[in-house]
Structure formats: structure tokens, C-alpha cells
Amino acid sequence: GAVVSQHPSRVICKSGTSVKIECRSLDFQATTMFWYRQFPKQSLMLMATSNEGSKATYEQGVEKDKFLINHASLTLSTLTVTSAHPEDSSFYICSAGDRGRKAFFGQGTRLTVV
Amino acid sequence: SQKIEQNSEALNIQEGKTATLTCNYTNYSPAYLQWYRQDPGRGPVFLLLIRENEKEKRKERLKVTFDTTLKQSLFHITASQPADSATYLCALGTGTASKLTFGTGTRLQVTL
Fold first, then answer.
1. Residue B40 near chain A (CB below 8 Å)
2. pLDDT of B15-50, one tens digit each?
3. Rounded Cα distance, A97 and B96, in Å
4. What angle do CA B106, B93, B87 make, to 5 degrees?
């Protein structure tokens, strides 16, 4: 199946700083990618839809100024958590589809804000 | 509001038995339903997709059924093995762009 690579897998940052997470589709082009957040023992919650060459679409309740998404090419989307706080600590996962309905997920990024 | 429930938070079964996981949804008309496996600290891995006009899908030891009248999907793992231990997520989608809404997940533990 298709491969989606997410980096970094783990990051610890100080409160108030910003963190960038990259999501790459390695062997296919993805016009649309998705960003999810998962808290311990909970399911994945969609945060936003990342559209190549245009603005991201955010789900209700997700602050677009806090979670900046950039999808500058057909193989790369980035999520920047700005002015991170401890409550932003979570597992962030991206996904991309290869023109079909299957989603291929990255390995996830464990963000810890101290 | 839309709701997707996987009835068991955890399921323990003995090796060799068939594991059956359920996924129920309300206030939703999905075009397709998918099942994923997620191991701790990892992203979900795609297992099976079934469309609204399909009743059953199989892949090796896996079988999925989809009943749009009952608004329910059943996921079966036959001849279960300890390596099948993981969290299994059902996900519903309506479009073609892989945008999914996930269920709560069922943690399966297969013991010897």
C-alpha cells in the first residue's frame, strides 16, 4: 500500500513555543491530507482537511490560528502548533488518500508540552 | 449528532477462536465503512473497506459485514492469534477524499 511518512515521531517542547510536524506521501501525490488528534484511550478526532494550494478546512472547535496547516506541494503537508500549552499535548496523526477512499496514515507524532 | 459506537471497549478471547467486533452508527448515511488496526503509539493501518451496496467482504482471516438498515458493521477475525492483539477502529466516510469519522475503538487481546 501507499506510504505516508510523518516526522518527528516524538517531540518535547516548552510551553509557549511552536512545533512543526511534517507529513509526506512518499509514493503518490495527495491533493488532500487530513490531520487528526488522539488523546489517550480515545479515538481519532479530525482536526482539519489540508488542501494542496489552498487554505485548510478546520473542524468545528479547532482554532485555525493555533494549528497552522500548510500544504504547499502534492506530497507535503505541515501542521504547526503555535504557542503550545500543556493541554496541546497529544498524539497527532496525518493521513492521505491515493485518489481512492482508503486512507493511509503516518506513524503519528507524540507531542509533549512541558 | 452523528455517533459511531464500538460496543466493547475491550475484548479478550482465546487463541484459535473467532473474535467479533461491532460498530454501530446513528445520524449518519455513510457511502462506505472501513476497519483499521492501531497498535500502541502508532498510526492506524487500513484493513478492509466495504461499500454501502455490499453486504460482506473477506480478506484472508478477516470478514466484514455491513447492514445499512441496522446501521451496523461486524468485523470478524477467525482463528485468532496473539499477534492480532491491537485496537481495532471502524471509520465511516461519505466522499471520495478519505475523510473519515472514527469510532471509539475496541481493544482486542488474544491469549494463549
1. no
2. 999 999 999 999 888 888 999 999 999 999 999 999
3. 9
4. 15
Question: Which residues neighbour B21 within 8 Å (Cβ) at sequence distance 6 or greater?
Answer: B6, B8, B11, B74, B75, B76, B88, B90, B106, B108
Identify the CA nearest to A48 among candidates A100, A40, B38, A61.
Answer: A61
- Touching A: B residues 46-105, CB under 8 Å: 46, 49, 89, 91, 93, 96-105
Q: What is the mean pLDDT of residues A54-72?
A: 93
Residue of B24, B38, B2, B8 lying closest to B70 (CA atoms): B24
Q: How far apart are CA A86 and CA B15, in angstroms?
A: 41
Count of residues for chain B?
112
